[in-house]
Amino acid sequence: MASPSPAPATDLSIIDVDAHITEPHDLWTSRAPASLKGRVPRVVGSGRERAWVVDRDVQISTTNPSSVVAKDGSKSRGTEFFGFQIEDVHEASYDMKARVRLLDEFGLWAQILYPNVAGFGSQNFMKVEDDELRLACARIYNEAMAEIQQESKGRLLPMALMPWWNIAQSVEEVARAKAMGLKGIVMCSDPDSIGLPDLGADAWKPFWDACNDTGLAVNFHIGASETAFNMFGRAAWPSHGMRRKLALGSAALFVENSRVLSNMIASGIFDRCPNLKIVSVESGIGWIPFVLESLDYEWAETSSQREMPLQKKPSEYFRDHVWGCFWFERVAPTQLIDVIGEDNVLFETDFPHPTCLYPNVQEYIAEISADWSETRKRKILQDNAAGLYGIELPG
Question: What number of helices (H) and strands (E) belong to the chain?
């Protein structure tokens, strides 16, 4: 049986910038108006045959809780968790009061939360044909997340879903998220997958202006579109078994965000929006130096400046606009921080997903930060995230 490592004796309020909520089965139905209770996301069926459906009978997700932490505290390290249901997993996966208690056991002050059922970029809602119903699905979720943030007294900080299939609605939802006190948004990385303009097109300028003006961080979680989420697609050869497919698919997802960030930099968005803040979530940081170096090199080799006259070298935008997060890496946090920049690095646990640090959070932190200065520890484990997301620290 696994148990969380003891909290350290430290004056730091450690912030975990990527964890997930296993959505309670009544998250939408308990908050929907009567006219929508039979159409918003809900669980139908019984036992392991249950499914998340929306509208009349459109399945948008299984009811697997996406948690590898079992009810008894043990951790699944294979594929057994695919058979878990909500009754089988640790209560902190879905009960946010239990999550706060677990933060205390882990020695963490606050945690940024991301969805499961909607997809990491709310792309699963595109299975719904009714635009008004899709919007209601996102808005009800965001209202529920604002409740969680308030009830946790600012220790659990869910990111707001965007109705990215409609640019005008997305602009409105940025303002609504800000008004509700939410600290950032979850964005789909590839709206062009459904025929919309890509995120660098002029049509998205009102959205980027809204994010720039509100100061809300724009989070690109790995797998944030049908294009980007490819865990069991092309990453692994067909001859591999499920365990190898899971391993290779997961690793491939981590580096997929290099494509998203590279396109953001090359689009010129940051010249138009000088206050824009972008986070590459659950993607690690080891790839960042190579990608930035290769962008600079290829930008010059291809004379791309003639097509998009950027005000800076591509790599220079990272320092002012982009943050990356790590959790299991050992090489990058100990050897590459000076190259990446200690002001642009964040810490995460990915609880309760596969590859999460549970239960050895403090052991990992102690190992990778052993040679860090106190200034570096404070920045990466606390201050960077607190400033980025506007998190109030205790004391």
Answer: 13, 12
- pLDDT tens for each residue of 156-191: 999 999 999 999 999 999 999 999 999 999 999 999
Pairing of strands 217-221, 184-186: parallel
Angle value at C-alpha 156, between 152 and 161, nearest 5 degrees: 120
Strand order in the sheet with 184-186: 160-161, 184-186, 217-221, 278-281, 322-326, 345-347
User: Tens of pLDDT along 151-162?
Assistant: 999 999 999 999
List the beta bridge partners of residue 186.
161, 219
Alpha carbons 291 and 310: distance in angstroms, whole number: 17
Give the residue among 373, 345, 353 at the shortest CA–CA distance from 15: 345
pTM (predicted TM-score) = 0.94
CB burial of residue 40 (10 Å; 0-12, 13-18, 19+): buried
Looking at residue 1, its pLDDT comes to 47
